[in-house]
Amino acid sequence: MARRRLAAEPTSRLAIWARRLALFSLAATLVAVVIVRSGALDIVPALSTLAGALVLAVVAILLAFAAGIPIWREGIRGIGEAVTGLIVGVALIAYPLYLGVKAYRLPAIYDVTTDPIDPPRFEAIARLRPRDANPVNYAGLYAAELQREAYADIEPDVTEASPQDAYDAALKVVTKRKWRVVDARPPQAAPPREGLIEAIARTPILGFRDDVVVRVRAAPEGARIDIRSASRYGRHDLGANAARVRSLIDDIDDALAAPAPDKKQPEAVKPAQAAGRGNSVKR
Fold first, then answer.
1. pLDDT tens digits along 227-251
2. For the segment 93-105, what is each residue's pLDDT rounded down to a tens digit?
3. Cβ neighbours for 232, distance < 8 A, ≥ 6 positions apart
4. Integer angstrom CA distances of residue 135 from 106, 184, 211
5. Each residue of 32-61: b (16+ CB within 10 Å) or e?
6. How far is 240 from 238, CA to CA, in rounded Å?
7. Is the separation of the CB atoms in 224 and 162 below 8 Å?
8. What is the value of pTM for the model shown?
9. For a designed S-S bond to 144, which of 116, 174, 210, 272 qualifies (C-beta 3.0 to 4.6 A apart)?
10. How far apart are CA 190 and CA 213, in angstroms?
């Protein structure tokens, strides 16, 4: 008696392609992040690669939903492939969607400073910026008004510390953050000169290079610290520069408020020990 062969259930091809596109999108995203952080290629093609990978992630999500209809109705195989494509695709676009919501709520500026009237200038960094980067000069009163409406707490840091102490605290914080210090000039009383620190910071994930300048000037009762943070690329910083200026001011204030380390005093010699030392025989 011949055995009857059971035909294997077909697998949804949409589910298979959903998984393939999602995994390819994941690989392309990782490659794009590595390229941007390493600086191996120009920023524009690297970002184009990242944008293309995210588009493929969206396509994978759509294919996963489309595959779910025949899988549910006809009972064919492919649920695992569809779920994999859906999870990977959603994971890839979740953070960009979050950034999109932030971009909608925040003003489209890329340069934030505590002194919009007389912003600290990029001098050494201006010679290092690529030609296709954002302008070095501050955007002007329009950007200042947008900044004031969105980040009203961004203002100069006036401290009772001396200009030299304020400069030392700022340089300590910048060094602790492992930013690349391009130029550092301490303040002087005679001839009068303001303190200036120019550094390059990098964003956590993609490693975009943002430029920071800290200016320290003498004030009637201490020192005034002004900070400027600007993105090299893009017309929208998604609030990153304001957050950097805010946290930098907080860290400088904490460094100024921290007590100076006490020098260890030599321990007093007890009388018995002193007597013992006097009776000891030198060899």
1. 999 999 888 999 999 999 999 999 9
2. 998 898 888 888 8
3. 129, 130, 133, 134, 208, 209, 210, 211
4. 21, 22, 12
5. bbebbeeeeeebeebbebbeebbebbbbbb
6. 6
7. no
8. 0.76
9. 116
10. 23
